[in-house]
Every structure is written in C-alpha cells, then in structure tokens.
C-alpha cells in the first residue's frame, strides 16, 4: 500500500505538469484547428529564462528569500513566454490559418528547431544546474500502521498544488468569464463573433499568451523537480502533453487536465509495477514508451479521446 501511494504521488506530480502543457495545445486547437508543435519548446525557454533570472537575483540581492526569488523568476518567465507565444502566433501561424493543415504543422516544427538552436547558442548545449530553492527535506505522507508512509518533498507538493490551482482557475476563466464566452464564440464562428463586437485576433492572441505562460510555469516546476534545464528539455514533455490532450479529447479543457493526470499515472505505475513483474526489463528507462503506447492505443481505439473532442462545427 505504501508503494502504491508513493507511485501515486509521483504520477500526480508528472501528470500535473503534462496537464499544464496540454492545456496550451488544446486551447489553440480548439480555436484554430492547428497543433502548435513549438509549444514544448516554449516550456524549455521558460525554464532557461527562469534560471537566468534566478542567477541575476541571487547575484544582485543575495539576501532575498529563496521563495521570493523563485516567485519573481516564475512570473518574469511566464510574462516572457506569453510574449514569445504571441510572437509565434503572429509570425508562424497567422497567415496560415486558412492554408492546408500541413503548412502550419511544418511551420510549427520550424519554429521548434529555431527555438532549440537559439537556446543552444544562448545557454550552450550543456545541461544547466537549476538551483533547488524549495526544501528537499523528505516529507512523509499518509503513514501506515507499520509507521512508514510515502515520501515526498516540498518541491513536489508545491508542484501538484500550484498545477491543480492553476487548472481550476483556467477552467473557471473559460467557462464563467466574458473572455471564455468570447473564446467559445470565436471557436464556433470567427466571422459571426466579429459581427457581435468580438475581435477574433485579440482572442487568439490572448489564448496563445495564456498557453505560453502555462508552459513557462510547467518548465520552471519541471526544472525545480529534476534539478536541471537544457535546450532539448521541451521535446519529450511537449510530445507527452500532446498525447495527454489526445487522450482526454483534443479541444476539451477538462479532457486535457484528465489526460495529463492519467498519462502521468500510467507512466509511473507502468514502470513501477511492470518493471517489478518483469524483473526490471521494463524499468524506468522505458518510461517514455508508455506514453507512445497510450497515444497509439487512443488513436486506434478512441480517436476522440476519453471525454471526446469539443469542437464547434463551422459552416
């Protein structure tokens, strides 16, 4: 039982990060019907910008509390990545909205490679050590009768808590606010929405900005948990987040959240229990395989995802 709770916590931590990134994919797809394959690299840029800000703050004001340094770095990285996502939309996608679907796909891949190369030139190819600003002291969770429970730390618990809070806030924003109604109207029919006083370009730009900010938040939390950041760190999380969006139902916000959490649990439980059952043949080195097995299975058995696609029909 203790081992299961331990795996559950690990899976929730990974899954909450996938869910944050998957939200960016699903919001853009819900409005524009395109997959922004540069989204994972926005995560990487956010983590590296956060790292640079942390170094600057610690060098200029060494007396600042570690939590405040991390908070300031996170907010600055989120703002920078929101602007970066807006720039990507303006340069790589705006003129391709009505082009064949292959065109924005190729454009997104090109932007992804461009961001990786730029990051490699600015921050070098070598992995950068990300400072541990939150406590790594072990925290025992739900101790059993034997006196031993699952072990985690403040960084992992903070990651899960912030991710769940941000996802809930985004859901309320989209479903209860004027911006959310405008977003759904643009997804339904941009021309009719513009006749009702809604600026489709503004809504699309804000959607990209929110997705970029969430990706930066996920990038900093990922770097904080794993202790490093590098120019290639966004590729696999980006692909897995896309898998999570497909698993839950592309275009469906609740589906993206559910898909991210489920994917994290599937990865961790799969490597933990299947690895034990096979004598370590399917150990942690094969963790990434489970994400792609899930992607293939969903595309074959239920292409619309668990909760189904939420796409407006356009005339």
TrEMBL record:
Coiled coil: none
GO CC terms: plasma membrane
InterPro entries, sorted: ABC_transp_permease, BCAA_transport_permease
Gene Ontology molecular function terms on file: L-isoleucine transmembrane transporter activity; L-leucine transmembrane transporter activity; L-phenylalanine transmembrane transporter activity; L-valine transmembrane transporter activity
Entry's localization field: Cell inner membrane
Primary localization class, coarse: membrane
Recorded topology in the membrane: Multi-pass membrane protein
Listed name of the protein: Branched-chain amino acid ABC transporter permease
Species per Swiss-Prot/TrEMBL record: Pseudomonas chlororaphis subsp. aurantiaca
Organism taxonomic ancestry: Bacteria, Pseudomonadati, Pseudomonadota, Gammaproteobacteria, Pseudomonadales
């Amino acid at each position: 039982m203790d081992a299961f709770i331990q795996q559950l916590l690990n899976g929730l931590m990974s899954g909450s990060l996938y869910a944050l990134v998957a939200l960016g994919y699903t919001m853009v797809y819900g409005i524009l019907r395109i997959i922004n394959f540069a989204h994972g690299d926005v995560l990487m840029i956010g983590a590296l910008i956060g790292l640079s800000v942390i170094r600057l703050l610690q060098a200029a004001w060494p007396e600042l509390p570690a939590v405040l340094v991390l908070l300031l770095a996170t907010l600055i990285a989120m703002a920078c990545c929101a602007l970066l996502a807006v720039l990507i939309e303006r340069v790589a996608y705006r003129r391709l909205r009505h082009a064949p679907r292959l065109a924005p796909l190729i454009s997104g891949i090109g932007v992804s490679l461009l961001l990786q190369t730029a990051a490699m030139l600015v921050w070098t190819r070598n992995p950068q050590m990300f400072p541990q600003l939150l406590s790594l002291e072990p925290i025992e969770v739900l101790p059993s009768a034997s006196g031993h429970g699952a072990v985690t730390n403040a960084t992992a618990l903070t990651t899960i808590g912030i991710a769940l809070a941000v996802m809930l806030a985004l859901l309320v924003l989209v479903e209860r606010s004027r911006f959310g109604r405008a977003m759904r109207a643009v997804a339904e029919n941009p021309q009719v929405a513009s006749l009702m006083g809604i600026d489709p370009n503004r809504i699309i730009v804000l959607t990209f900005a929110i997705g970029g900010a969430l990706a930066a938040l996920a990038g900093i939390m990922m770097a904080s948990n794993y202790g490093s950041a590098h120019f290639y760190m966004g590729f696999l999380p980006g692909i897995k987040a896309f898998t999570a969006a497909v698993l839950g139902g592309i275009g469906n916000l609740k589906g993206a959240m559910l898909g991210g959490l489920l994917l994290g649990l599937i990865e961790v439980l799969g490597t933990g229990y299947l690895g034990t059952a096979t004598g370590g043949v399917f150990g942690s080195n094969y963790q990434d395989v489970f994400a792609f097995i899930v992607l293939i299975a969903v595309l074959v058995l239920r292409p619309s995802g668990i909760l189904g696609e939420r796409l407006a029909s356009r005339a």
